[in-house]
Amino acid sequence: IFANVPKGPAIEVFALTQAFKDDDNTKKVNLSVGAYRTEEGQPWVLPVVRKTEVGIAQDESINHEYLPVTGLETFTRAATELVLGADSNAIKEKRAFGVQTISGTGAIRVAADFLHRQLKRSTVYYSNPTWENHHKIFVDSGFTNLHSYRYWDQNNRQLDLEGMLADLEQAPAESVIILHACAHNPTGMDPTHEQWKEIANLMERKKLFPLFDSAYQGFASGDPDLDAWAIRYFVDRGFELFVCQSFAKNFGLYCERAGNLTVVQQSSATRDMIHSQLTLIIRANYSNPPAYGVRIVSKVLNTPELRKEWMECIKNMSSRIRQMRKLLRDNLVALGTPGNWDHIVNQIGMFSYTGLDQNQVNVLIKTYHIYLLKTGRINMCGLNTSNVDYVAKAIHAAVTS
Ligand code: PMP
């Protein structure tokens, strides 16, 4: 029965992590992984998360009954408020609601299934480059017209707004446009507020549907309100849209799969219909969502003292990343490495598109045991004060070899 099943291609980021593990060189550095690391190079359980999970474990009133199909309500409400702002008109007018999903990936998948089945959408545009799973998810949801829009200007190592607008101008009305809410993965390059306004103008005129992928709220700048600026701007302008929220990075809850799909409508009258269809999609997929992670997020966001502690944690993570950006750039400048490296400090969030080409990446991996994606994307969290000199010197050698 199984003899003719072809082997699928490896997923680059996981293959690199395995290669890193198998490498016994003592100087090895993993810049490919998509997770936060401390100055000591270790995963970080946010202290507020640890404290909250201990409290939950000791709470005798909590049991393991199923959650509703669309998840824990105290969580979906808090998540929706976090992204839209507690004083959002869309929330006050009951035009916005959330359903719990299997982290950000699950939110995108449920959104794509709904858009295809209920709204008969089959055209999607994502940035070039983007998080590689966008394409896979939309193919699996039945989308047949998948396009990319220009985003990254490799020569100038900045956002190619002109190219982006020109490509979106060609998109047929009703196309789904995936937008990274902040900390664009993989480039780390976000539009400015003025540029977002231009993007919104075009999307409104062309009747394009915004699907915001929000995987880094608070983690990017340290300020959850600032990181949600683009989403709130679109909502204030009256767009109907989806936001796919992940709590993997900003709560460090990667494997617990805490996510939320926020729906913003023009009228509260469509809420029950949309909610019922999302329920059916989830029911047939995995029936009920997991409770562990969302109980933690719910407790923290809904308890003022814990929420304050969480804000300190996200400030801590984002400022360490900014410090690493500066150190890497300053090191490269001090070494006289050819080229301009300012983009490293102008980018935001966990990732940096370094602009290194594939040959240079190969030199870093093979000669220096520094693991990064072939596109030149690095995870800034893989850097710390002990290895940043080594990495900068290796980049210098790769660029000048
Ligand atoms: N979108 C983007 C842009 C991401 O970078 C990620 C995480 N790598 C996700 C969505 C989803 O992650 P998760 O399913 O772990 O929440």
Q: Could you explain how this protein is built, in words?
A:
Helix 3 (73-84) crosses helix 12 (292-301). 46% of the residues are buried. The longest helix is centred in the last third of the chain and has 32 residues, at 304-335. Helix content is 45%, strand content 14%. It folds into 2 domains: 12-45 and 319-400, Aspartate Aminotransferase, domain 1 (Alpha-Beta Complex); 73-302, Aspartate Aminotransferase, domain 2 (3-Layer(aba) Sandwich). It has helices spanning 12-22, 47-57, 73-84, 89-92, 103-117, 133-140, 161-169, 193-205, 224-227, 229-236, 271-285, 292-301, 304-335, 343-346, 358-368, 388-400; strands at residues 29-30, 96-102, 123-128, 145-150, 152-153, 158-159, 176-180, 209-214, 241-246, 258-264, 351-353, 370-371, 377-379. With 401 residues, the protein is of the alpha/beta class. A 7-stranded mixed beta sheet has the order 2-10-9-8-7-3-4, sandwiched between helices. A two-stranded parallel sheet has the order 1-12. Strands 5-6 form a two-stranded antiparallel sheet. The protein is globular. A hairpin with a 4-residue loop joins strand 5 and strand 6. It is built from 16 helices and 13 strands. It binds 4'-deoxy-4'-aminopyridoxal-5'-phosphate. 4'-deoxy-4'-aminopyridoxal-5'-phosphate is lined by residues 34, 103-105, 131, 180, 185, 213, 215, 246, 248, 254, 259.
